Amino acid sequence: MTVKKIRAQFLKLLSSQYTQDEIGVHFEMLCEAYLNFTPAQVVLNLDEALSPEKEAQFLAALTALQENEPIQYIIGTVTFAGLILEVDERVLIPRPETEELVYWLLSAYDNEAPLHVLDIGTGSGCVAIALKKARPNWKVTAWDVDLDALATARHNAKKNSITVNFEVVDVLGAQLPNTNWDIIVSNPPYVPESEKAHTEAHVLREPEHAIFVPGASPLKFYTHIINYAAKQLNTKGGVYLEGHAPLMKTLHLLLTQAGFSDIVLRNDFRTNPRFIRAHYR
Three-class SS of residue 180? Predict the structure, then answer.
């Protein structure tokens, strides 16, 4: 079977689940992973015959996509802030929006001061590892309550030759480490469970505890993070948060009430209010 014929199967059999553009992007990602083709090379090599092994790989990926498995889990990796990270069903897939949060934070601090940085709810480790790679002089710690996620994060750090202090800590717990930080960053679960019915099927294949929060308390993670930050941030310390667009104004209010100042709300590349930054004292 040629590349052109296998692409035609993808376009036909996935048309009820994805747009034509999405199918095209997925196919290009598989061609890069399986054939080492760039998107331009895919077009130039449509008539190339696939070996039986490669054909089997593509057909297995097609079946997985039909079963709503995320393309990143099928390939097994994702690119994030210049890093290649391994991902599977144990962790949330890093999003481009979270890359924006990382770059915003980095734009505010250089590498000269040996800052102490905490990433709460690290998941795959994407934020913590990206920060440490860009700022080797920082001491970066990352928390998560999920042991499987931490195993993935540790593996990703080792794979990228990055040293991060990963710890099993539940930010909702009563006793949190009495450590002082210069920066606290978090992309916690923030989508209300009421939106689950309208969530794309392939997103529901990701760990739901890393996405959804009870509708009655959608800001519970932020409340705990802000309270902890108010106690443990050093003077002029900063907190950087990613959140749910409809709740960002309420998050701004919570930060104000907790004594934070210099609060800035920022849109993502889709122009949705997505990030907030604040300083304490």
Answer: coil
Type of residue numbered 278:
A
Report the C-alpha gap between 58 and 176 in whole angstroms.
Answer: 47
How many helical (H) and strand (E) elements, i.e. helices and strands, does the chain have? Answer: 10, 11
CB proximity list for 96: less than 8 A, separation 6 or greater: 269
Q: In what order do the strands lie in the sheet with 273-280?
A: 165-168, 139-144, 116-120, 181-186, 233-242, 273-280, 260-267
What's the distance, CA 115 to chain centroid? Answer: 23
Burial class (CB in 10 A: 0-12, 13-18, 19+), 127: buried
Q: How far apart are the first and last CA of the chain?
A: 65
User: How many CA atoms does the CB half-sphere of 19 hold within 13 Å?
Assistant: 4
Residue written as tokens 């480790």? 125
Tokens of 208: 């739901």
Residue 184 near residue 229, CB atoms below 8 Å:
yes
Tokens coding 156? 């990703």
Rounded Cα distance between 124 and 130, Å, is: 11
Average pLDDT over residues 58-68: 98
Pairing of strands 83-86, 116-120: unpaired
Q: How many CA atoms lie within 13 A of 35 on its CB side?
A: 27
19-46 confidence digits (pLDDT tens)? 999 999 999 999 999 999 999 999 999 9
Which residues face 240 on adjacent strands? 185, 277
